[in-house]
Amino acid sequence: MIFSLLLINLFATQVFYGDQPMLVSSGGWLLKWDKFVELAKYYFERMGFEQPTVGSVGNFSYIVWNGHTVGYDSGSKFVSLDGVSKRSEGIDLLEALKIFGLPFVLEQDRLILPNMWIYEIQKVQDVIDVSYGGEKRLSVVQDDKGIYLKSEGYVFYKDVVYRPGQILVQFERASNESIEQQIDLKGLMRLVITKELSVTRIRFLELSDSITLNQGELTVLHAPGDNRVIIRPYVPEYDGADWPIYAEVRKIAEKLCQRFSFKLEVCPLIVLPPQTMTMLILVEDQKILDELKSFLEELVR
Amino acid sequence: MKRLLLVVLIVLSMQLMARQLVLFYLDDTLEPVSVRQNVDDADLVKTIFDRLASPPEGLKSFVPKDVLRAYFFVESYLVIDLKRSPISMFDFTQERFFVHQVLRTIFENFSGIDAVYFLLDGSRRDVLTKMVDVRFGFARHFWSRWPVEGEK
What we know:
The complex is a heterodimer of chains A (301) and B (152). By secondary structure, chain A is α+β, with helices and mostly antiparallel strands. In chain A, 21% of the residues lie in helices and 44% in strands.
């Protein structure tokens, strides 16, 4: 008995969801129809994918997912992969996964399906967003050169399955930048990069000008209007990471409003990116622009 | 006499059942004016939008009619899905004050909400129409009071 169990284990193949076993098969990669369907449905559910359509017509059973069909006729023992039929005693798991476009890693007798599937990694200004399905199996590492996203599981991203410890992406990092906040929502990992403050210069630009933000500079946009200064509020998702910049910008804006009897308005304008030393001044009398500039330059000196 | 008492009781219970909303409109100088109104409608968010779209005489509002597409609560957040077409022609002032009016009114009437998010036609967008950034949430801290300070 013990010997036969040992033999089964020795020749068994195993299917893993990342590092968690999902299925042990003594028949190699050839699975019975029910086992295959059960495995597929379980995996799609764990990954948060759309569930497949499963049905049968007479002896012919089928499963449809992502526009691809795998079917099996239990009477004539024919398997159908996207309409191409061949005789088989079961479903070849490797062929079926390829038909569905599902990536996997083969390690001897182990087949590993990714437990994190990254749809997109996007860096917009000081925020890195990672949208994904499955589990969050990613960590953040930073050194003098950059910020790195490291796999902590079997992570699929851009046609590659990354094993634990492998680096997926690297972002450049300035010396005064660091990851201060990591916000985790379902299917979204958000990293917020913060910068140390040190304003030494003022730059005046018209609202219509294209904006390039420089470190250590307060960028003041101006346009004709009803004598008010508009600053951006802090962002709830940043969880306090942008408070220092908000406080600094607000302090300068308040002094400006006090000196010129302007209104101070808080509104998140797209031209005032989060975590930047920026403000918009709407000025009725364009002649006072020089006076405004001098005042601000004096303020930060 | 009994009938009169019954009528008084019904009127009193209706008054008790009704909820009072505080709505923020604007005067000619774009200063906020709060107005209290009793409502008995269970759908308070929709009622807020309907009432804001119909300002009392002498006041103005930048909230157009039929702009609310849907809304839903997620824990302490309110997600407001707007129809794009009624606001697509907003100028810079209208766009900002629409946001201020809606948020100030929402935060005044829903004490359990920490942040509001805007969607447009069911999708997340970068800007409301042209200038206001709606990629992130709007925190209670800023709109639990009118977000414009100071004198002209």
